[in-house]
Amino acid sequence: MMNFKTKLVVALLVISIFLLSGCEVYQTLYGTAPKEAPKEVPKEAVTKVVRVEGAQDEAALAKMAYAAATPTAHDPFKLGENPLGPFDKGKSLGFTLQQWLAASGIGIYSVDNENAELDLSFKNLVPNGVYTAWCSRITFPPDFNVVDKPCGAEDGSENSFTADEKGSGSFSLKLKPLEASSKETASIIALAYHSDGKTYGASPGDFGLNTHVQVFFTMPEPTSDATKFQVPIKFVNHINAGFPEQDVFVEVEKKEEMKKEEEAMEKEEKPPVTGEVTKEEAMEREIIVSEEKPVVIVVEETELVSLSPQAEDPDKDTNLIFTFTSPLNENGEWQTAYGDAGEYTVTITASDGESTTSRDVLIIVNKKEETPTIDSAKPIESGLAIDETQAVEFSVAASDLNKDALSYAWKLDGADVGNEASYVYQSTYEDSGTHTVKVEVSDDLSSASKIWSVDVKNVNRKPVLEKIEDIKAKETDRITITALATDDDKDTITYSISDKRFEQEDNVFTWQTDYDSAGTYEVTVSANDGQDTTEQSFMVTVENVNRAPVITDIVQKK
Fold first, then answer.
1. Contact (Cβ atoms closer than 8 angstroms) between residue 362 and residue 438
2. 128 with 191: CB under 8 angstroms?
3. How far apart are CA 481 and CA 501, in angstroms?
4. Of the candidates 332, 338, 390, 385, which has an alpha carbon nearest to the alpha carbon of residue 363?
5. Would you list the DSSP string of 424-484?
6. Ordered structural domains, the chain, with CATH
7. In a structure prediction context, what are the per-residue pLDDT tens digits for the chain, which is 558 residues long?
8. Which of 236, 383, 387, 458 has a CA between 20 and 30 Å from the CA of residue 531?
9. Angle, nearest 10°, between helix axes 279-292 and 4-30?
10. Longest dimension (CA), the chain
11. Buried b (16+ CB within 10 A) or exposed e, 92-126
């Protein structure tokens, strides 16, 4: 049996494990440790930081992100002597590694012969952060090289934007088509955060110090020689792309000798199991720890929960039966699905046929965020052509695996025009040209979008002539007609008249009548805008004027 000193050490060990586990559970449930649990003060200040790579556990993701103290060159393929660090620690960036890696972005890259356009949107950026977009060119190893160029104007005057207070942002830009990707080289669109709030024109700034590439997209190799195409864009971070994180860093772990010291202390505190301790006593220790330490299982939606309890019976009864409460099935399994996010307490009961013992397990199902999907869209074709004054109805049917409520945002040439699942574009006589209609479907965390191009063809509007009243005049009168017409298209108007007796000067027609002009005449005035003609007819009546007889000769009668 254990002596008093040994029992005391075991009890202290159990209490330590319980307190440590309690903090872990508190952090799992509420995100931060309780204020009553002060952090351990390191033996010496950490002055070094490193790059992280690969999948990170919750503890690593909760670490604060730092800049380096000096500019740190990119080395995603780990070709240098010190690709991961350590590096001298710079300023704290004010967010955790998890917050940094949560950024996402989608968009469309459109090319039409010698013209291209980027239409991008982002979520979970640094709130109110200053960003720049870079259209860089990378050469893959063994001749690794990156040439950074700002998207748009070469001086970097068009490639910046600021995220809003929620960390959302959008970026649209017309630019020259990017160089096609190949097996050796590729065009990359990268988004860089500037922790000093400044941009540097044609230069991205100092990587790792003040400039931090958060997400990027590598253009795929073209599948055809088409000169008009679209490429859907989905940004990734370095970790998701299989590289080490490049521009934000975390503090190094404690020095190896400090770890060894702690391990030695732990060995001194744990009494070894020798021949003096019976198997029952060893089981007793295990049972105490198991009963005190909470059991927490953390999964994501759609993952399988599969519990395999273990128990021993002091009576050596090997026919133990386990039962599980809902939502576990009789085998201790639960296939979670979208919508199951939450906390579930289940009870596992072990029975030897006579006696039972139970244990509670907390299952935490974290939400698995999925991007909304646009299942169908109308019109089906992405390029449309209509005449001025015609209308087009756009609509989308969207779904979300998380069953999240979806919101819709329609934009016409970048301006907000609707927030329903459908939108009607009613063109006017002022809309000739090419327009873009875009819908973005969002669940507040991620979004899906679709873009249509609408070519609105000009419809000519005829000139409108002011009414000309019928005219009455007398012989020898001068008749003047002024034709006045307007054209909504602002086209140049030319005038004409059907009666050649009138002399024309621009839109003014004049006829000097004489004593032989008496009569009634139908006259038509026309206005032409280069495409269409508008005519107006009216009557011109010239009344006879009696002239006194003229004595032409006087002779003597015979």
1. no
2. no
3. 12
4. 332
5. EEE--TT--EEEEEEEEEE-SS-EEEEEEEEEEEP-----EEPP---EEEETTPEEEEE--
6. 87-251 (2.60.40.200), 373-457 (2.60.40.10), 464-543 (2.60.40.10)
7. 444 334 433 333 333 333 333 333 333 333 333 334 334 434 446 689 999 999 888 888 999 999 999 999 999 999 988 899 999 999 999 999 999 999 999 888 999 888 999 989 999 999 999 999 999 999 998 888 999 999 999 888 899 999 998 899 988 899 999 999 998 999 999 999 999 999 998 899 999 999 999 999 999 988 888 888 888 889 999 998 889 999 999 998 755 434 544 555 555 554 444 434 444 443 443 333 334 456 888 888 899 999 989 888 777 766 888 999 999 999 999 999 888 888 999 999 998 888 888 999 999 888 887 889 999 999 999 899 999 999 999 999 999 988 889 999 999 999 999 999 999 999 999 999 999 999 999 998 889 999 999 999 999 999 999 999 999 999 999 999 999 999 998 999 999 999 999 999 999 999 999 999 999 999 999 999 999 999 999 999 999 998 888 888 888 887
8. 383
9. 30
10. 185
11. ebebbbebbbbbbbbbbbbbeeeebbbbbbbbbbb
Pairing of strands 356-366, 383-387: unpaired
Token output for 404: 């999240």
The sign of the dihedral angle between the CA atoms of 519, 520, 522, 527 is positive
- Give the SS3 label for residue 397: strand
